[in-house]
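pls design
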């Protein structure tokens, strides 16, 4: 079967069906022949620079986006330096189809700057505003604690960033307690959740949360749009108002957000943030060994000097007045020994007191203790609810009994017992006047003990 279209014939299979590869190749040929090289203007998004020198990105406007590639950009794409996320550019390129995906693509040959895109303009405007308020100033940034015990992690519970940070923390500082505050890090409204999490961890006592020594706010890499929630003003102000040091770890090393500028410390990646905020246990042990060695060397030198002096004395070098010569060194040695013992004891006592204070503070805000307080509070609420429900049920039961008694008192059964009766026709119509019945009608009269059937005689 043959189909004539645009002056060309396209061969289909015997069953009239075209293969996917043939259809995609046909699309590619039509685009390359009918459109060819073209100038396109739009905003750069999701720029990725490969080690091979190739650039991959999208160019978009408010209604559509187009995949772009600049192969060996350094040599074959003039003006490639204007390519950055959020930049508005004019691109000269060849329209084609990437056959493996069946995706339309622009092979870029030349780039011209056309200003900044909408998102980049918003970024620069907010950056200028917050910088003018002093939120980026170095003097307002808080130092990180040397040995944090509790670290708050504000990130997605299902993201790779969380796994990377936990892995590094477990390797470098297994004694650290990580507290996860899961939030959405992408999509509409995620910035409100991030800002709320920062505010709650900043005042943990108000929300029955453990107090953290440092907070990490982060996520993995992505396009400018993916990272945009960390460029929102509410997130920046929450970081600035936080009473606890905040580390921003958003995206990759080349990604910069407003949160990076406001945070006390900016880490290039989530993994780097974990390495930055905790000391390495192996490095600490090595440092302690070096410190011990530096203390032992002068002590051993003093001991060797004293031993030499003693040997000289024994040989008779100081025989004339050895006691007088040795008296002062011995006194100095005794005095130094006492001083060293006193300093060591004082330092040891100080360390023990510090450890006791930290242990007490740690116990008071340990997550298990916080959980126990919440369970106790829940039990108290449960008891109060049961008591209130019991009182309410008892009151309703009493009201029901009063209504039941009132019904018994005012109902028809009570009237029957007092001698009253009700007469109805066989069809159930209530008889209240003689004119309602005729001779021969059968009536039913209800009394206290039952019913009486009768017939109207006249």
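designed seq:
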């Amino acid at each position: 079967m043959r189909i004539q279209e645009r002056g060309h014939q396209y061969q289909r299979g015997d069953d009239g069906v075209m293969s996917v590869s043939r259809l995609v190749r046909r699309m590619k040929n039509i685009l390359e022949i009918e459109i060819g090289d073209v100038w396109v203007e739009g905003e750069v998004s999701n720029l990725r620079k490969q080690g091979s020198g190739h650039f991959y990105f999208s160019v978009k406007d408010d209604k559509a986006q187009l995949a772009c590639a600049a192969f060996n950009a350094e040599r074959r794409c003039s003006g490639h330096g204007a390519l950055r996320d959020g930049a508005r550019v004019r691109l000269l390129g060849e329209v084609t189809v990437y056959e493996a995906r069946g995706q339309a693509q622009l092979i870029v040959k030349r780039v011209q700057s056309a200003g900044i895109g909408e998102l980049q303009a918003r970024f620069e405007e907010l950056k200028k505003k917050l910088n003018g308020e002093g939120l980026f100033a170095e003097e307002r940034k808080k130092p990180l604690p040397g040995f944090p015990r509790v670290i708050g992690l504000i990130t997605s519970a299902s993201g790779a960033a969380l796994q990377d940070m936990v892995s590094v923390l477990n390797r470098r500082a297994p004694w650290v307690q990580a507290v996860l505050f899961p939030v959405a890090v992408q999509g509409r409204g995620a910035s409100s959740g991030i800002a709320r999490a920062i505010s709650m961890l900043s005042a943990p006592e108000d929300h029955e949360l453990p107090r953290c020594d440092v907070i990490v706010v982060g996520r993995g890499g992505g396009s400018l749009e993916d990272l945009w929630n960390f460029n929102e003003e509410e997130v920046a102000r929450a970081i600035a108002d936080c009473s606890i040091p905040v580390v921003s770890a958003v995206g990759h090393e080349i990604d910069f957000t407003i949160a990076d500028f406001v945070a006390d410390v900016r880490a290039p990646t989530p993994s780097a943030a974990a390495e930055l905020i905790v000391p390495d246990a192996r490095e600490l042990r090595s440092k302690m060994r070096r410190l011990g060695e530096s203390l032992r060397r002068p002590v051993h030198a003093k001991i060797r000097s004293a031993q030499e002096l003693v040997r000289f004395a024994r040989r008779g070098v100081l025989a004339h007045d050895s006691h007088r010569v040795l008296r002062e060194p011995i006194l100095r040695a005794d005095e130094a020994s006492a001083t060293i013992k006193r300093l060591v004891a004082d330092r040891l006592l100080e360390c023990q007191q510090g450890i006791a204070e930290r242990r007490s503070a740690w116990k008071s805000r340990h997550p298990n203790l916080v959980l126990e307080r919440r369970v106790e509070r829940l039990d108290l609420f449960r008891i109060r609810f049961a008591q209130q429900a019991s009182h309410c049920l008892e009151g309703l039961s009493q009201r029901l009994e009063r209504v039941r008694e009132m019904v018994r008192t005012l109902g028809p059964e009570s009237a029957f017992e007092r001698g009253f009766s009700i007469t109805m026709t066989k069809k159930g119509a209530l008889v209240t006047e003689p004119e309602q019945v005729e001779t021969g009608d059968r009536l039913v009269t209800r009394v206290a003990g039952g019913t009486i059937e009768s017939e109207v005689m006249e």
